[in-house]
Amino acid sequence: MASLGATASIYSEDHRITYYECDRTGRATLATLIDIAILASEDQSDALGLTTEFVQSHGVGWVVTQYAIDITRMPRQDETVTIAVRGSAYNPYFAFREFWISDAAGKQLAYITSIWVTMSQSTRKIVKILPALVAPYHSEQTKRIPRLPRPISFEPTTTTISKPYQVRFFDIDPNRHVNNAHYFDWLLDTLPADFLLQHDLLHVDVRYENEVQYGHTVEAKANILATDQPDQVKTSHLIQVGDEKCCEVTILWRTLAEPIQ
Amino acid sequence: MASLGATASIYSEDHRITYYECDRTGRATLATLIDIAILASEDQSDALGLTTEFVQSHGVGWVVTQYAIDITRMPRQDETVTIAVRGSAYNPYFAFREFWISDAAGKQLAYITSIWVTMSQSTRKIVKILPALVAPYHSEQTKRIPRLPRPISFEPTTTTISKPYQVRFFDIDPNRHVNNAHYFDWLLDTLPADFLLQHDLLHVDVRYENEVQYGHTVEAKANILATDQPDQVKTSHLIQVGDEKCCEVTILWRTLAEPIQ
Predict the structure, then answer these.
(1) Topology agreement, domain A1-148 and domain A150-261
(2) Which of A67, A164, B172, B228 could in theory staple to A24 by disulfide, Cβ–Cβ 3.0 to 4.6 A?
(3) Residues 204-243 of A with CB under 8 A from B
(4) pLDDT class for A1, splitting at 50, 70, 90?
């Protein structure tokens, strides 16, 4: 898999992290990390003529189903980062896209892999990927694309934390869907502030199952779990609407010696 | 008042409006408009050595108490706008800051006036503005600074719309306060989607009274009011925590012939 996607075009752009993309610790939020990654991929697509309109003219839309996110260091307020993106490979049903986010010295801050499908606009069902929608990326056609880690299947316990969130008008982005980076604000807001101030994100596995809609009230649930490492902890998350599972997430955290003030 | 602040330094910078700063109509949100205005003013302050740390080393912090926002046209996704900012004038207790947001052709999109005070970090009371905190802006020292329009005093009626919002961890920005641009997401989300899709913002008057805190549940209330103009409507808004008034807002809207699809 080392060389998978080696022929695919890499697109890169810079982005300055603004104060309003950061949390109170001055670190970019996880939602921001995904927002700027998707922005770069949309810019690559536009530059190659693969605009949203072009994709929709084929009766389909791209939908992300999984992310696996490795975080070395979260970018901070006022840092300018470089986002590189590549539509690395695809098979008949799944496309594999990678993102590298690095600091001004070229040091890697985050590496994101993701799996995408095309969904029919009329039937809302997954359909075969049309070669015309991937050829301009010089994506590698392959039988097998990497399987991303599946998040832990969420198991409610007596200590599960749960909070309701109304999906707001401003959660819908110009693509007419709830910006699924907003899920991270819900997921992480369920954790106590003390926890968020004393942990750094290390790895995030995300799997989207069903789309949430404007007007829905989602329930975000979280479990805090121990790991084998004394300075690491895991959290398992679920977003659901009624009984329907919308998104499952597992996060690995590094425990800091002291909370960030 | 035409020449008030004519000697003050103007700082300007460009900003590209990203998809995640826009609503489903592709227009920048009101929260984005304020976010990018404040970003420009922080950049001006930093460039003049008036960093947050410098201000805090005097035992105070700047707090905005009022905005009056004129909107000619909301910027759209992928537009690059120019934000110009000027710390125009101050008297012993109030500072007057202006912002101009314009498109690539130099056409004005929005004009924002605002009133700021300095608050003691220990007593949380308003204190006299220290000349050292405004001199580098070449702000004009004056007896009278303009009075901004006061929003309509909110009157609950039987048709008042009301919605609760939990203040989230990610509403707090690196300044350790709830980003008060987020109030606009709460205020406007209370209005029906049909209304938001069939109206353009024309003018917004905002008055902040008390700060909301992480963990609070705020209640956002709205009344939709007629005006003398057949194609215009007003909305009156209140954000409160318990019985405490946090923010009052009046918005003038232009009714569109048809809703945006």
Answers:
(1) yes
(2) B172
(3) 214
(4) very low
